[in-house]
Specification:
340 residues; Rossmann fold; 11 helices; Alpha-Beta Plaits; alpha/beta
């Protein structure tokens, strides 16, 4: 208990020290000081010098704040002489205090905006974090934005991105725990690693697992050994560049297959691969019809993954799916005159 109290006191002292180093603190201190000084001067000029019994210090505080704000209701007014001088001084100090306050707030907003646009501001409350500066990272980000997840995506990159960036990003070292913490890795639900260097990917993955054991991590790698190591480290999914090599090789003898695959894996094209979790017992045909009626698109189920892990292909319309089964479908745009 004693140690906890000491810890809280130390934290409060640190917070107070940081607060006293800001311009906001000095502006607030100036405002409060002028408010009290003007109230004291008004009390002296009206109560002591002018002998007005209706002016006490509470009334002076009220008059001071109203005069500094240049509102001037007129319910309390000074008498001639010293009271007028005090009123003029209070009005000038009020204008100065409010001008300083507005300038400090505007400067803070401008500074924050510039730091964010330059990738210097920490990322906050991002559910999805992309780490790396390779072209694969841009592809991942573009796909997430197209699917309507742009507000949830943050990007930790080693260098200033090229072109217009539609998401919040932070420039930092992916191998540094401090940079990962600033990027919000500790609270992210999904993390993509696209560093272009397998050794950096392994190092960063281990750091992330240490910082956030609940996050689902996905990585782009270049060899089978790295895939194996990352799987042992708890990385959810890995995509190897070897897969890209095998895929592009099919362009020689199956060019249309490659074209369809390229269309399927992005939301930009006419075709898209989606995954749906069955909410109740139903048939493939009924599920396709419900999705088509809801989204005004066509659907064709191709694979069902049972809750037991069994994968079923070659589906017919009467294939039964149970609650919790995962169904992979091809989603396609319906052209005028065609049916789903």
């Amino acid at each position: 208990m004693v140690s906890f109290i000491i810890y809280r006191l130390i934290r409060k002292r640190k917070l107070l020290r940081r607060l006293t180093r800001t311009r906001v603190f000095y502006v607030a201190l100036f405002f409060i000081t002028m408010w009290l000084v003007n109230a004291g001067l008004f009390y002296y000029s009206e109560h002591v010098v002018a002998g007005r019994p209706d002016i006490d210090f509470a009334a002076s505080l009220y008059w001071s704040i109203i005069t500094m704000a240049t509102i001037g209701y007129g319910d309390i007014t000074p008498v001639r002489g010293l009271g007028w001088i005090v009123a003029g001084f209070a009005a000038l100090m009020g204008i100065l205090a409010y001008t300083l306050t507005v300038s400090v707030i505007a400067d803070w907003f401008l500074s924050t905006s510039m730091r964010r646009s330059m990738g210097l501001m920490p990322l906050k409350k991002k559910k999805i974090l992309v780490i790396g500066s390779s072209d694969a990272c841009r592809e991942i980000i573009d796909e997430l934005v197209i699917n309507g997840l742009g507000d949830q995506v943050g990007w930790l990159t080693e260098k200033q991105p090229r072109g217009v960036i539609d998401i919040d990003y932070l420039i930092g070292d992916p191998g540094s725990e401090d940079s990962l913490r600033k990027a919000g890795a500790g609270g992210a639900e999904h993390i993509y690693l696209c560093l272009g260097d397998d050794s950096k990917t392994i190092h960063t993955a281990l750091l992330l697992k240490h910082m956030n054991k609940k996050a689902r991590i996905y990585a782009v790698v270049s060899n089978a050994k790295t895939e194996e190591l990352l799987k042992e480290a708890g990385v959810e999914y890995t995509v190897s560049t070897r897969l890209l090599g095998r895929t592009i090789a099919s362009a020689i003898f199956e060019p249309t297959v490659l074209e369809v695959l390229s269309d399927l894996v992005t939301a930009r094209g006419r075709l898209d691969l989606i995954e749906v979790v069955a909410g109740e017992k139903t048939t493939i045909k009924k599920l396709e019809e419900e999705l088509a009626a809801k989204n005004k698109r066509g659907y064709k189920a191709i694979i069902v993954k049972r809750k037991t892990g069994e994968i079923i292909g070659a589906l017919d319309p009467d294939t039964q799916v149970e609650e919790g089964d995962r169904i992979v479908l091809i989603e396609y745009r319906i052209t005028p005159g065609s049916s789903p």
